[in-house]
Amino acid sequence: MKESSGVQPGSKAAEIVQTPVGRLGLEICYDIRFPEQSLELRSKGADILCFPSAFTMKTGEAHWQLLGRARAVDTQCFVVMPAQSGKHDTGSGADSSQDYVERISWGHSMVIDPWGRIIAQSGCNGEELIIADLDYTVLEKVRADMPLWEQRSAAAKAADQRAK
Question: What region holds the CN hydrolase domain (predicted)?
Answer without folding.
Answer: 1-136
